[in-house]
Amino acid sequence: MSESPVQSPVHQATSAAVHTYLLGSQGAAAVLWQSALSSPAPDHGFVWFDVADPTAQDLARLQQQYRLHPLAVEDALHAHQRAKVESYPGFEFVVAHGVHRAVNGSLQKHELNLFIGERFLISVRHGSGLPLQEILDRWERVPEAWHPDSSSLLYVLLDALVDEYAPFTDELEAELSSIRQRLIDPAHSNEHELRKIFNISELVHSAHAVIYPLRDVLSTLLRAGPPVVSPQEVPYFRDIRDHAQHTVERLELARNLADRAFDIYHALENRRQGASSRQLTMVATIFLPLTLVTGFFGQNFGFLVNNVIASTPAFWILCVGFETLVALGTIVFVLRLAGRNPTQAAIKS
C-alpha cells in the first residue's frame, strides 16, 4: 500500500465532477471549488465538497488544504472498500454503501466516502446515486440549529442512503413471494423458474453483505461525539441505525425465504417425478400379466394348437376373453391399491 497518492500542483484542474457549497445558518450557496479552498469557511457554517469518481490529482489539493491522511485518501480513491469508520487527527473517515436494482435486475451499489471535519465535509462518490439537489433539499429541512455543523450534512447523506434500502427490499420481498406462488403451479415450475430462484438468492445474499456492516458504522458514529454527531442529533442518528437494522433483518428473512424456495422447488420436482414413476409402474403392472397370457397361448406346441385352441370359439374364449379378463382384473387391483395410497391425487395429476 502506498503512503500517499500522487501529488499534483496546486493549480492542477480537476478531471472529476466537483460541486462545492457553503452551508450554514443562511442556507446553502454554490461556489467555485477553487474559491472555497482559498477562502475560510463561513463563521456559522461549513464547506461541502462533493467529488464524483475522482483521480489522485482531483483529491491532492483537498488533501493539502485539510491535512487528510494519505491512507484515508487512498481508500477514497479506490472503490470497493468495506463500510467503516476511522478516526484521524482533525477528521473522521466514513465509508457507506447504497444499493439499487439495475435494469437487467442485477445488484448495483454506489460507494460513499466521507471526510468529516469541524468546518468541512468532503464526499467522494463512486457510482450513481444520491442526487445533489435531493440532498440539499433534505438538508434545508433539518432543524436550523443544526445548519452550522457539518454533522447535519452527514445525517442527511446517511439518512438518504438508508432510505434507498426500503424500496429495494420491498421489491425483493415481492419477487420472492411471486416466485413461491408460482412454484406450486406445474405450468411455471421449470428450469426457467429455478434460474429465477438462483438469481434472486444471489441478489439477496449480495445485498445483505453490502448493508450489514452499516449497522456497526452507525453505532460507532453514535459514540464519536462532535463534530461527527452533535448531542441533539443522537436520536436522529439512532433512528437511521434502527432503519438499517430493520433492513438487515428483512434481508436475512428474504435470504432464508430464497434458500427455502430451493428446497420447495426440489421437493415439488421430486414429487412430480415420483408421480410419473408411479404412473409408469401402473402401466407396467397392467401389461405384465397380459404379457404372460399372450406368451402362454402363443406357444407353438401341437397339443395346445390342435386340442385346446383348435376352434375359433375356443380361440375367442380362451385367448382373447381370458386376456381381457386378466386385464380388467389387474386394472381393478391397481386402482384399489391407488385408492389406499395417500398420494393418489399426485398420481392422477
Tell me what you see in this structure.
- This protein has a seven-stranded mixed β-sheet with strand order 2-1-3-7-6-5-4, with helices on both faces.
- It has 349 residues and is an alpha+beta fold.
- Helix 8 (214-224) runs antiparallel to helix 9.
- It starts with 16 loop residues before the first strand and ends with a helix.
- It contains twelve helices and seven strands.
- Helix content is 58%, strand content 15%.
* Main sheet makeup: 7 strands, mixed
Beta strand count: 7
State the secondary-structure class.
Answer: alpha+beta
| Uncertain regions spanning at least 5 consecutive residues | 1-13, 342-349
Beta-strand proportion = 15-25%
Q: Fraction of residues in helices?
A: 55-70%
Along the chain, the helix and strand elements come as EEHEHHEEEEHHHHHHHHH
Say which CATH homologous superfamily of the domain at 1-145 is assigned. CorA soluble domain-like
CATH topology of the domain at 1-145: Beta Polymerase, domain 2
Q: Helical element count?
A: 12
Give the second-level CATH assignment, the architecture of the domain at 1-145: 2-Layer Sandwich
- Give the overall form: rod-shaped
CATH C-level of the domain at 1-145: Alpha Beta
Alpha-carbon distance between the two ends: 64 Å
- In the sheet with the most strands, the strands line up as 2-1-3-7-6-5-4
What labels would you give this structure?
Beta Polymerase, domain 2, 58% helix, 349 residues, disordered C terminus, seven-stranded mixed beta sheet, alpha+beta
